[in-house]
TrEMBL record:
One of its GO terms (cellular component) is membrane. It is found in: Membrane. Keywords: Membrane, Transmembrane, Transmembrane helix. It comes from Pontibacterium sinense. This is TM2 domain-containing protein. It is a multi-pass membrane protein. The chain crosses the membrane at residues 129-148, 154-174. Pfam families: TM2 (PF05154). Its main location: membrane. InterPro entries: TM2. Residues 125-177 form the TM2 domain.
Length: 203
């Protein structure tokens, strides 16, 4: 089945509509999506993927319509169900699905993973969930900082909890929320695949 890309988010094909709809449906499933909307009559498909803590927050919606010359047009949009796409992840997912529909391999595909840089280390095995829990419950004492390896900041939090009670706790609470909001890849990149310095603050 052949598709012509007429814009960044639009594809066209002269294939049969029912066959096209079924082909795109199967493509979404092969890409790991879970179908949320499927309406052949209305020309609508929507699939969802896990993103961070949200199990089905990342969505790709495909709207089908028939043009005057009986060409089938597909409009592909990506985004989040309950929030704005501030990271661009929705748009990236939509581009990935467009390439999959066209049968084009992702450009970042390679025979080998990228080599570790000079500042990279083996996975330190720190959990974002554990870091978040420690920040929320014991963050005022710097427990989350000791856990991720910033023992210098951990001591600073501990001392400040006696000098200015409550300040470190509020900061740690914000950090805990931040940990939970990070997806696994971002957390690993910040805290598991690099050296953590004693007084290094990462956001």
């Amino acid at each position: 089945m052949e598709f012509e890309k007429v814009s960044d988010t639009t594809l066209q094909t002269t294939a049969n509509y029912s066959d096209t709809f079924q082909y795109v449906r199967e493509t979404l499933l092969k890409a790991g999506g879970k179908l949320k909307k499927e309406n052949l009559q209305d020309g609508l498909l929507e699939a969802a993927w896990r993103y961070g803590l949200n199990p089905f927050g990342l969505r790709v919606t495909i709207q089908f319509r028939t043009l005057d010359d009986n060409t089938i047009e597909l409009n592909v949009k990506g985004g989040f169900k309950d929030s704005f796409d501030t990271t661009g992840a929705g748009q990236k997912k939509a581009m990935e699905i467009i390439r999959a529909i066209q049968g084009i391999s992702a450009p970042e595909a390679a025979d080998q993973p990228p080599r570790m840089g000079s500042d990279s280390v083996m996975n330190r095995g720190k959990s974002k969930v554990m870091a978040g829990i420690l920040a929320v419950l014991l963050g005022g004492l710097g427990a989350h900082k000791f856990y991720i390896g910033s023992w210098g900041l951990g001591l600073a939090y501990l001392i400040s909890s006696f000098v200015i009670p409550g300040l470190a706790m509020v900061i740690a609470l914000v950090e805990g929320i931040r940990y939970f909001m990070l997806n696994e890849n971002d957390f690993n990149e910040k805290y598991n695949y690099c050296q953590i310095k004693p007084f290094e603050f990462k956001w």
